[in-house]
């Protein structure tokens, strides 16, 4: 006699919402003691919304109550698995942020990840692990490369460099035109410009493992951004700024500024993790120091472990978050997602109501109809 295959129990999603009473810069205070907390059990596609501090679940095809802010959407695939995703697939839809402190193993970083510490954001531009790898010093809107002013150095024999005021161009130290200046201040020796830039960036060869902060500099006269690379006579692309060699493994983090007033802080943090753990925070001992009131003294750490760069939260007040790039499958292990001042903990568990499609914190407009249907069926524990 063939054994009888027992079908798996239907799954439910348990959602625990915690909302901070204050509405400040989309922050959530993980040290707050007075939070507005609610628990839901979801067995079908739902949308989570918030009205002030009141968090509600509404059916996927229902219109949102007036004044409500959408938080996230719980969807269900054909295999009955549950997924969490943004409410809208449009690019304007707000990101979902995964809470790192809720994971016992931290977050394994990949290139392109966006990290949020308090109200400050970084983008992971590069993860270097091979011994031959070196940082790529280029921002998205930075100029690409410039060529020497002319390969005919004899024609520039009487041309002055605007920095050293000496004439002439050579193969080793050509005259270049790195900005939009014209006339007698158009040309500058490559070596002179490199020397000036290194002084402005305060880059020295004695930095630990070749760690430094790079930011694009602009011409003080025409305000044009200097290019990142220079193409020499053999069409080889070399960095405009001579930087020390960085010891792998290393990480390159880009500051994501919030407004134009912070443009001066935009740049790339190049940090070697060869002999240390990278610390991010407000304290003086931090490798990446962020002078912001929403940042803890030692806010988060990045360590290189078994070939992976692992981001860990250091019990910070306003948390360490990573933007979700796509829909996430919900599993028995809970995942915490932050949307502004609300943190939602979601995990799947067996539906002991034997498949009844109920929602234990139903909207009040549906509560009476649900109760009447339950009484009519004689099922006190589930909805038809």
UniProtKB/TrEMBL annotation:
UniProt xrefs under InterPro entries: FHA_dom, SMAD_FHA_dom_sf, Znf_RING-CH, Znf_RING/FYVE/PHD
Xref: SMART domains: FHA (SM00240), RINGv (SM00744)
Entry keyword set: Metal-binding, Zinc, Zinc-finger
Record domain FHA: where: 278-327
Domain of life: Eukaryota
Chain ranges of the RING-CH-type domain: 153-229
One family name in Pfam for this protein: FHA
UniProt cross-references to PROSITE patterns, sorted A to Z: FHA_DOMAIN, ZF_RING_CH
UniProt name for this protein: Uncharacterized protein
Species for this entry: Durusdinium trenchii
Species classification: Eukaryota, Sar, Alveolata, Dinophyceae, Suessiales
């Amino acid at each position: 006699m063939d054994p009888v295959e027992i079908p798996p129990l239907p799954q439910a999603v348990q959602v625990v919402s915690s909302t901070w009473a204050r509405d400040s810069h989309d922050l959530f205070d993980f040290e707050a003691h007075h939070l507005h907390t609610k628990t839901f059990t979801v067995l079908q596609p739902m949308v989570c919304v918030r009205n002030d501090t009141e968090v509600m679940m509404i059916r996927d095809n229902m219109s949102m109550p007036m004044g409500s802010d959408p938080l996230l959407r719980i969807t269900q695939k054909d295999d009955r698995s549950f997924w969490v995703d943004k409410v809208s697939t449009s690019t304007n839809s707000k990101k979902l942020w995964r809470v790192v402190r809720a994971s016992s193993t931290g977050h394994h970083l990949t290139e392109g990840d966006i990290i949020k510490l308090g109200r400050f954001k970084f983008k992971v531009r590069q993860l270097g692990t091979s011994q031959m790898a070196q940082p790529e010093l280029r921002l998205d809107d930075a100029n690409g490369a410039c060529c020497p002013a002319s390969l005919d150095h004899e024609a520039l024999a009487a041309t002055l460099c605007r920095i050293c005021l000496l004439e002439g161009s050579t193969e080793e130290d050509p005259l270049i035109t790195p900005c939009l200046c014209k006339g007698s201040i158009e040309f500058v020796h490559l070596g002179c410009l490199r020397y000036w830039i290194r002084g402005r960036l305060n880059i020295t060869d004695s930095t630990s493992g070749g760690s430094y902060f790079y930011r694009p500099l602009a011409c003080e006269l025409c305000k044009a951004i200097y290019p990142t690379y220079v193409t020499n006579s053999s069409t080889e692309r070399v960095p405009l700024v001579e930087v020390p060699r960085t010891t792998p493994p290393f990480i390159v983090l880009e500051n994501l500024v919030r407004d134009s007033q912070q443009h001066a802080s935009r740049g790339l943090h190049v940090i070697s993790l060869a002999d240390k753990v990278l610390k991010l925070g407000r304290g003086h001992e931090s490798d990446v120091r962020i002078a912001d009131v929403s940042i803890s003294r030692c806010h988060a750490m990045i360590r290189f472990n078994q070939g992976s760069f692992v981001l860990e939260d250091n019990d910070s007040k306003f948390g360490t978050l990573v933007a979700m790039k796509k829909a996430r499958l919900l599993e028995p292990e809970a995942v915490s997602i932050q949307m502004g001042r609300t943190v939602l903990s979601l995990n799947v568990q067996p539906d002991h109501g034997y498949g009844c499609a109920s929602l234990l914190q139903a909207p009040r407009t549906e509560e009476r109809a649900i109760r009447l249907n339950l009484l009519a069926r004689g099922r006190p524990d589930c909805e038809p």
